[in-house]
């Protein structure tokens, strides 16, 4: 029996946890009505692959499939040779991780890629040739004019029925645009000034480990060992650790500029951005100033537009000094927005502060939403909040 078959068998044996009914069949629990309706609508199950299943983003898919009742019929977990033999525990059952190969996608209908740009470039063509819809979290194809770059709440219209490869935007671009795009209804946006405060999880499982270990070493009075970050990470922050171009911008900043323009279809949008890595384990934050073409909208209008925007939650309690934090955002699907205020230095500008769990909305959740959109799945029923600890 191939590992693929054994994975499918395990899923069956584990009573197809993905149909959601398993959770509700426990004594005393009844399926929510919305979930029952949803399952009728998505009776056909899909064969799914996750490339990068052992990574920080990949791991999120495994819980999201269940939380969003994604109709997984068979699941293929793919990673590098390093993970050969590893087994991931999914709802009490182990599924073997298999090193990726060009033939890994035979029979796969939807493939989620989260293993870096070079793996995407190598394996997206065979996956598409095998008939899979590829949703790619890497930067490999984002700026390809033929590839939709999609945040479903903002530019769902970019996905066409024939698209077989769809890119998930950079996590900081998603954070910024989820907070900014709803304000387009209040006036033409001319310029964004953004500073990010990016967590270790944005650099993957290894950077999270590094932050944890260095913090322990410093607290124990030891000199922390240098790791993948260019600077000491614990009790420190540093300019985003990606190469700097000749204009003086690092790769992350450049992605934010270009991807914001592509997603909004606004080639003239001016974006000034500084990306910084901070010693937060999970969830990115951003300070954003939005300049409008005319007078700035009122704070109340901004608050109302954001409160009505899907996927956004406003936390803006001036009296209690309570605003979004990365800890509040950790494990949450919504992007949190607050500190909504006039920019007193500019008559056309509004400032705000936003946080998101970028492993979710900045990566895996956005990817899954794209798949739901491309496959024409009905909106999943109301979901319990994720509860991943930071
Ligand atoms: N972290 C974020 O917040 C975030 C947000 C948006 C997009 N992304 C993108 O998502 C991707 C994954 O990021 P991550 O943070 O999850 O990184 P990660 O924690 O380092 O995980 C990387 C994954 O890729 C696999 N991989 C690495 N080299 C491979 C190879 N040669 N062949 C097959 N698989 C290989 C790893 O498998 P092994 O365990 O076997 O090494 C692991 O499963 C990247 O493209 C990243 O840019 C990340």
UniProtKB/TrEMBL annotation:
Q: Does the keyword Membrane apply?
A: no
Q: What class of enzyme is it?
A: oxidoreductase
Q: Give the source's domain of life in one word.
A: Bacteria
- Active site, UniProt feature: 171, 284
A GO term, aspect molecular function: NADP binding
Q: Which UniProt keywords apply?
A: Amino-acid biosynthesis, Diaminopimelate biosynthesis, Lysine biosynthesis, Methionine biosynthesis, NADP, Oxidoreductase, Threonine biosynthesis
* Pathway noted in the entry: Amino-acid biosynthesis; L-lysine biosynthesis via DAP pathway; (S)-tetrahydrodipicolinate from L-aspartate: step 2/4; Amino-acid biosynthesis; L-methionine biosynthesis via de novo pathway; L-homoserine from L-aspartate: step 2/3; Amino-acid biosynthesis; L-threonine biosynthesis; L-threonine from L-aspartate: step 2/5
Which sites bind phosphate? 142
Q: What are the binding positions for substrate in this chain?
A: 198, 251, 277
Which reaction is the catalytic activity of this chain?
A: L-aspartate 4-semialdehyde + phosphate + NADP(+) = 4-phospho-L-aspartate + NADPH + H(+)
- Sequence positions that bind NADP(+): 54-57, 82-83, 201-202, 358
Q: Pinpoint the Semialdehyde dehydrogenase NAD-binding domain residues.
A: 47-162
The entry describes its oligomerization and partners as:
Homodimer.
Q: What PANTHER family would the database entry show?
A: ASPARTATE-SEMIALDEHYDE DEHYDROGENASE, DEHYDROGENASE, PUTATIVE-RELATED
Role:
Catalyzes the NADPH-dependent formation of L-aspartate-semialdehyde (L-ASA) by the reductive dephosphorylation of L-aspartyl-4-phosphate.
Put simply, this protein is called Aspartate-semialdehyde dehydrogenase
Give the organism, scientific name. Answer: Fimbriimonas ginsengisoli
